[in-house]
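Researcher: Please translate sequence to structure tokens.
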Amino acid sequence: MTAAAGAAAVPGAQRLLAASDLDQTLVFSRRSAEVDVAGLVPVEEYDGRTISWVTPAAWELLGALVASGAFVPATTRTAEQYLRIRWPHRPPHLAVCANGGVILVDGAPDEAWTARVRARLAGCAPLERVHAEVARAVAAAHAAVPGSEGPAVRDVPGLFCYAVLRDGQRAALEGPLLGDLTVLLDGWGYAVSLQGRKLYAVPRPLTKSAAVAEVVRRGGFAGSVAAGDSLLDADLLAAARAAVRPGHGELFRSGWEHPRVRLLASSGAAAGEETARWLLAAVAPGSASGLVPAQKECSGPGKVPPRTSSA
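Model: Translation complete:
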């Protein structure tokens, strides 16, 4: 089944909202693109260098998605990190940041939503306790890799924390260190997710799906379609009427499956292009066909194993 055909099969007579993760779903680093970035379109600059790209066809598709008025990025990036992304013509009117902790309206946080999120997180363990445990685990991983740079542990104030690992430290962290941290923080109401070089500890009530549901409600949409590659995207995909995930990323490596979520045949930046086409076909049927040829996809098995993380 083609991506466009899969999107057209989504039930519901009313309009749907397309919600998508960004990093390794729509935009790609040099390492994750799987192609020479010289042929790609730069979409993010940081410290004077380009750090994210999309294919030229994906750039056109993203412009059409934003113009449709039925697209919301849903990212674990902070608002400041999200605002570094460059969009064709203009950015989306709304964006979900900080794993659902922030809804941006034309670049500014919606304070009413922020207050609702903070109230929802009141029952979770204090962030400073979680930060200390994450710091302890990554310090042990650092000690196991002599000569490596120390990992950075950072807070998104009032929401969650994450660590940025250095060369060799991910391998040292995986196994008992990560398992013990996951069990401990699970009892405190937090999910642990290791994505590339970043280790996240996120309160379980803090989800992309809740924020996207709020965008759906405000916009009068019938529901959502979605895309994502990481364990922190699992709830977003499961809550959608239909969704896709690329042939790479934490969901792919963990074997996560869901009956409404299709596994795309492609990976890297090519999967970003395929994802953008599928999303556009879902919210604006016929719009994607005139931009670039449709690509093939395959279906993942329809079983849902126990989740090792939750967004």
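Researcher: Any highlights?
Model: The longest helix spans residues 127-143.
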